[in-house]
């Protein structure tokens, strides 16, 4: 996704005395409108020019267009001044070309920042921050957020990669999940043939394999489902793009998250337990019976801690879809959840 947007002040056009940004894109013929912008014939003109010459790119091949109402308002306000300067309204800016939508984009609030009032007149560039285009708007009751903006969701497919990269990543994850599922399933079936052969300190390997058998199964399901679960469907008629699923309103996404997160955390704990049992067998020379007496404690930690973390995330509604792998997980867009519910537990396991 590439958006070429340049916001410049009066220093870019020395002959003008307008104090504020005028937006243009490379090669866009906005020069005839400079006098109207300088004289502020309409409060909507600058927003309209920014929206048409430097549109927001929401997904591959689609851009956010200004609403017809914004075009008509700007044209109506500046009609007399345009006639005075001998400037005609360009055919490519015919208001009938733009969609008839309820909410005008960009909105005045989208172009305001807290530093506007205190900004120095010699400033060359402004950062207006992130504002959510209407294609990414989500119903308020769902509680979505993106880039610190509420009722907004990231676009699908992932905007940071090309289609070729996404396709390669999806098939790579699918192939690896099949290999992992085959290996762990073979380990588990070998254990079932003769359970008595696998005693402590080796037995945690079996539970470790079971955990990653479930993890690989979820990723394999995500490969088959593509983005049907991790993403909300697009609605072109309502000017809605395909967006990433958030929260627990999608039941299938919630189920995939519960299985994936629970067994990922449980697998890491069983890995720690495996190192502990081998240490007890190698250094203090504990026998299998002595280690097996601690089995209840091992199971309580390995299944209880991940269960508590999973329930906590469900209560906090921190589920997020992953458009690359097709599964749902945590910490993909929420940095706080990533730190405390993924990096912190895994870091503690390493320690």
From TrEMBL:
Signal peptide: none annotated. Residues 30-104 form the FZ domain. Its main location: membrane. It comes from the Eukaryota. The keyword Disulfide bond applies. Disulfide bonds join 71-95. It is a multi-pass membrane protein. The chain crosses the membrane at residues 171-193, 205-225, 255-283, 295-317, 323-342. Gene3D superfamilies: Frizzled cysteine-rich domain, Rhodopsin 7-helix transmembrane proteins. Belongs to the G-protein coupled receptor Fz/Smo family. This is Frizzled-3.
């Amino acid at each position: 996704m590439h958006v070429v947007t340049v916001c410049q002040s009066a220093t870019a056009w020395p002959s003008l005395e307008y104090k504020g940004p005028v937006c243009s894109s490379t090669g866009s013929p906005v020069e005839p409108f400079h006098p109207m912008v300088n004289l502020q014939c309409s409060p909507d003109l600058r927003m309209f020019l920014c929206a048409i010459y430097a549109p927001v790119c929401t997904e591959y091949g689609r851009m956010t267009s200004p609403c017809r109402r914004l075009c008509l308002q700007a044209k109506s306000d500046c009609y007399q001044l345009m006639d005075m300067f001998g400037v005609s309204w360009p055919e490519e800016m015919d208001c009938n070309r733009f969609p008839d939508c309820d909410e005008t984009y960009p909105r005045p609030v989208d172009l305001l920042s807290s530093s506007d009032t205190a900004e120095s007149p010699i400033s060359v560039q402004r950062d207006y921050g992130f504002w959510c285009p209407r294609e990414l708007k989500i119903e308020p009751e769902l509680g979505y957020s993106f880039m610190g903006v509420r009722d907004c969701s990231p676009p699908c497919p992932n905007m940071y990669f090309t289609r070729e990269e996404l396709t390669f990543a999806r098939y790579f994850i699918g192939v690896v999940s099949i290999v992992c599922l085959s290996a762990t399933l073979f380990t588990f079936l070998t254990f079932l043939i003769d359970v008595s052969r696998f005693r402590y300190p080796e037995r945690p390997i079996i539970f470790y394999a079971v955990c990653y058998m479930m993890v690989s199964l979820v990723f394999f399901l995500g490969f088959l489902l593509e983005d049907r679960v991790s993403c909300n469907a697009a609605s072109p008629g309502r000017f809605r793009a395909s967006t990433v699923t958030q929260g627990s309103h999608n039941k299938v996404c919630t189920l995939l998250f519960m299985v994936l997160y629970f067994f990922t955390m449980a697998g890491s704990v069983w890995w720690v337990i495996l190192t502990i049992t081998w240490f007890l067998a190698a250094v203090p020379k504990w026998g299998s019976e002595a280690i097996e007496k601690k089995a209840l404690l091992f199971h309580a930690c390995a299944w209880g801690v991940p269960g508590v973390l999973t329930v906590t995330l469900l209560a906090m509604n921190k589920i997020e879809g992953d458009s690359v792998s097709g599964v749902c997980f945590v910490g993909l867009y929420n940095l706080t959840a990533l730190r405390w519910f993924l990096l912190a537990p895994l870091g503690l396991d390493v320690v």
